[in-house]
Amino acid sequence: MAYFDAASTEPLHPAAREALLGALEGGWADPQRLYGSARRSRMLLERARAQVAAAFGARADETSFTSSGTQAIHLGVLGTLHARRRAGRHLVVGAVEHSSVLHAAGRHEREGGTVTTVGVDRTGRVDPEEFAAALRPDTALACLQSANHEVGTLQPVAEVAEACRAARVPLLVDAAQSAGRAPIPGGWSLLTASAHKWGGPPGVGVLVVRKNTRWRSPLPEDERESRRVPGFENVPAIVAAAAALEAYGAEMERDAPRLSALVDLIRERAPRLVEDVEVIGHPVERLPHLVTFSCLYVEGEALLTELDRLGFEVSSGSSCTADTLRPSHVLEAMGVITHGNVRVSLSRGTRAADVDRFLAVLPGAVRRLRQTSGVTG
C-alpha cells in the first residue's frame, strides 16, 4: 500500500518512537511534584517545551501543550475573545478555515458576538486588502490559517499580520498543515499546531500565546500549563512530539523540493491522463506535499474505495458525509467542483515509483466508475 494521506496524519516518526519509549521510563511521574521522579518528568517536559518553542520562534513561557490541535484552536479563539470583550465582540475569519475555527466562531455568534467571513479566490487564497478591510475598531480577534488543509494553498499571513498589527488586532494563525513542512511567517499573536501532522503521536497540540497578547482561559482555572490548559500533561507524548518536530523539520528542509516535484507531476499529468479533471489550489503558493483534484461524473467515496483496492490510501478534500450530505465548505467557498474529489498528500519517504504507479492506475479507475454510472470517457 502507498500511503498518500499525510495531510490527515503523518506516520509516527522514528525519532518520536525512540523518544516516546525513553520518556515512558523516565517521564511517567507528575511534573508538578517535588520528589526525584517528578523533577525528572518536569525536566523532560520543559526541555520539550523549549524545543517546540524554538521551532516556532517563540519563548518557552509562551508555549503550552494541549490534547489536540482542535483544543488549541478552541482555547486560542475563545480565550482571546473572552479577554478582549472590552475591545469589542467582532471576530474576523477566512472562509476556508478549519472547521474547529468556524465552530468556535459559531459559538461566539450564538453568544451575541459578530463574525465577518472573508472570502477566497478560486485558488483558495484570501485577498490581504479584503481581509484588512474587514477589521474594525471593535474587532477582538482575526484568524487565518497558514495553509489550507484541503487544497494546500498558502495564505498571505505576513501581509495580514501587518494589517492586524496596524489595526491593533491580535492574529491567530492555525499552522497545523505547515508546522514542520514549510516556514511560517511571523507577526502573529497566537499560533496553534498539532503533533500528529509532523510525525508526532496523536493527542498533543500546541498553543502559543505571545506575551503582549491579552488572553484568558474560557474554562475553569487549573494550575497546569501556566493556567492555560487543564489536565495532567502527557509528558511522554509531548517529549515524542518535540523530537519528531526537530527531526521532521530537518528532513523537510532537504526533502520538500523532491516532494514538490512529485506533486507538480500529478498536477501536470492527471488532467492530461483523465478527461474532465480540475486540479484545485494555487499552483505555486502551496504546500510542497499536497495536491487536490476533482473528477466530473464520479462519486468521491467510490473513487477513494477503488483507489484503496488498487493499493493507494488517499482522502477526499470533500467532507460530504451520509449524515449531512453537504460538500466541503472549502471547495464551496472556492467555487470549484465539489464532487469526485481526491486529495493526495505525500508523506516522508514517498517514492517516485509510487507516484508513477498512481498515475498509471488512475485513468482506469475513473473510467470504470464512469462506465458504472453510465458515463463514458
Automatic annotation (TrEMBL):
It comes from the Bacteria. It holds the Pfam family Aminotran_5. Keywords: Aminotransferase, Iron, Iron-sulfur, Metal-binding, Pyridoxal phosphate, Transferase. It catalyses: (sulfur carrier)-H + L-cysteine = (sulfur carrier)-SH + L-alanine. InterPro entries: Aminotrans_V_dom, Cysteine_dSase, PyrdxlP-dep_Trfase, PyrdxlP-dep_Trfase_major, PyrdxlP-dep_Trfase_small. Its cofactor is pyridoxal 5'-phosphate. Gene3D superfamilies: Aspartate Aminotransferase, domain 1, Type I PLP-dependent aspartate aminotransferase-like (Major domain). One of its GO terms (molecular function) is metal ion binding. The keyword Metal-binding applies. Belongs to the class-V pyridoxal-phosphate-dependent aminotransferase family. NifS/IscS subfamily. This is Aminotransferase. It comes from Actinoallomurus iriomotensis.
